[in-house]
Amino acid sequence: MVGQVYKSTGSWYEVKLEDGSFLNCRIRGKFKHTQAKVTNPIAVGDVVEVVHNTNHEGTGMIEKIAPRTNYIMRKSVHKAKYGHLIAANIDQAILIATLHHPKTSLGFIDRFLITTESFRIPTTLVFNKSDTLNENHLNELAQLTKTYSHIGVNVLAISALKNKGIDKLKAILKDKTTLLSGHSGTGKSTLANLLIPNLNQKTGEVSQAVKKGVHTTTFAQMFEVDAHTKIIDTPGIKELGLIGITEEELSDYFPEMRALLGHCKYHNCMHTHEPHCAIIKAVEDGKIAISRYYSYLSMLENEDRRW
Length: 307
Fold this sequence. Notes:
alpha/beta; CATH 2.40.50.140; 22% helix; 3 domains; globular; Ribonucleotide Reductase Protein R1, domain 1; Rossmann fold
């Protein structure tokens, strides 16, 4: 039987079969060794072949994984030098961010965009809780919209709580499989509940002590908005470790830096201190946002990124 993985708990996989029914499955041990540097060999969105488990009635075994059209992966937070698959076979990604309560750092936003860029996955940056923004926040939002729109990222401001901007978001989601990601507390689950009536995803409050969200989504799971529109809700990500990107390649995943490829005096320029560097000059001239350049330097200096 052929089906698609809708939920992964790490040990069990909920697979939707072609007849519309769901089957809880485990994987055979051989899959655990097929990708030596991945902690989870199967991700939500994978198309798989399954058979009924004769030893445990009502369950199945995953026998084979179909070739993926794409996937997105982060660095494992528990196992050095390993990656963790977030989702497979997706059309696009949406990062839910908030300007305050909790504040999503620009470094995190840029890391997410570099990750999706490296896997060639179109991404929309959605700022939630727009109804809570004061004048200073609105000015900041306008500047960020300009910064990210300039590099080709679609930016949208919404309020899931007040149902503002949701129609525009639905249009973006229509007839696509979308990865929904972001920090805990940014309103991912509230948004999922709004998009899919009767879903009843658990939502949580933002901790007043640390101004960060409380985890409410435990496992990655795919939901159907309609017959052709799916979203994959993921656990809130605290940190996003880049994987498989060398320091020499890093600037290639910044579109505004990639556009200046070959313009530096030295072919191996790292854009940190070298004379006649086109990137540094673009930053000085205001053509590259200083926040983006600082994100680049931060990623470059992070030893945990390289393996």
